[in-house]
Amino acid sequence: MALPQESDSPDKYTMLTMPYNKRPLSLYRGQFMASAGYKFAIRSQTFNKEGEKVYLKSTGTGSVFHYYLVNAEYGITNFLELGAETSLIRHGMRSQSVTYTAASLTSAERVTVNEFREVKGMGDLLLTATARLPLAYRWFDFSLTGGLYLPTARNEQEKPSHSVSDISTSNTVTVNYRFNYKYGFGVPVWLMAAGTKFSAGKYSVQAGLVYTTPREEGKGLRWDQTLENKTFVYGEKEYSYLLSDSWSGNLSLHYQATGWFDISLNGFYNKTNGGWTEYWGTRYRNPETGIFTVEPSFELQITPVLKVCQTAGFPVSGRNCDAPFYLFTTLRFSQFPFFR
Asked: How many other C-beta atoms lie within 10 A of the C-beta of residue 204?
């Protein structure tokens, strides 16, 4: 059945409940969609520069992070869609404790060093525009997306909150390093993406490619610290940086089990390269990273205007990056607010 074109009388119920295997890559004219997502991730392993897994649980340095996503999209026509997106994150990373012992003729002093790094706060605002083929979707679709991350969140380090404490005796000291970071690029970042989709009966294949690159170099602040008589003294220092370029690709196979339930298996790969960060007046190249993740997921239509999506992520291979297992839950509300 052909989907409604610009001149057709819209059938809201049909469009709101359109199953995935019959749905185009953008919203219909006049359709509004708001999404709210929550990702819970467990950072229990990483990939080193040789691509080997490093397990963090055995050293007590595993951690979790919480990621919240809000997205709004609107169909200007059946072939053009505008969107806006932002996010919030809270992520703490603890390093393995290290104890140093200095011995003299009369005593021995033990110093234990703990380190904790926390990233939290709102992310940048992403504005996008998506155009797809000006044809009714039957079995093939193609789309192009352009976007820009506006630096509404600053990429800088807040003042650390280090502390020093005596545990039991004057010869035993614990130094707690706590670094606090905000969440954001700090500079405008361009986004370009392309997507395609094929359907045959109850099966669909979708593929996509996303590229992001910074528009300019950025300026940030970091803190130097000096320990004087068990008290930390801090000083601000400005530095320059250039974000890495990022490439992401995905390929997914979907099966429309019923009109209201779709299951899929997705392969996702992300790679970053280029860019640099300044330390003490010298620019150091950012490490190249890469990760491949397998994501089983489903989409469930609860009511004509409400869907729930659930995705699980299993890291398979990578290099120079964290490898968290995650669960990502998304609620999507859709309606035609200006159609009777």
From this structure: 23
CB atoms within 10 A of CB 279: 11
Residue 159: per-residue pLDDT: 84
Pairing state between β 157-158 and 45-47: unpaired
Cβ atoms of residues 117 and 179 within 8 Å: yes
The residue with tokens 């890291």 is 315
pLDDT, residue 193, reads 98
Pairing of strands 108-122, 32-43: unpaired
Residue 227 and residue 310: Cα distance in Å, rounded? 48
Total-model pTM: 0.88
13: enclosing H helix or E strand: helix 12-16
CA distance 246 to 212: 5
Per-residue pLDDT of 185-217, as tens digits, reads: 999 999 999 999 999 999 999 999 999 999 999
**In whole angstroms, what is the distance from residue 22 CA to residue 2 CA?**
9
Rounded Cα distance between 147 and 189, Å, is: 8
Neighbours of 338 (CB within 10 A): 9
Q: Given this model, what pLDDT does residue 95 score?
A: 73
Quote the CA–CA distance of 70 and 72 in Å, as a whole number: 7
Which domains are seen in the chain, by residue range?
30-335 (2.40.160.40)
The predicted pLDDT at position 157 comes to 82
Nearest to 266 by CA among 256, 254, 257: 254
Instruction: List the chain residues with pLDDT less than 50.
Output: 1-7, 105
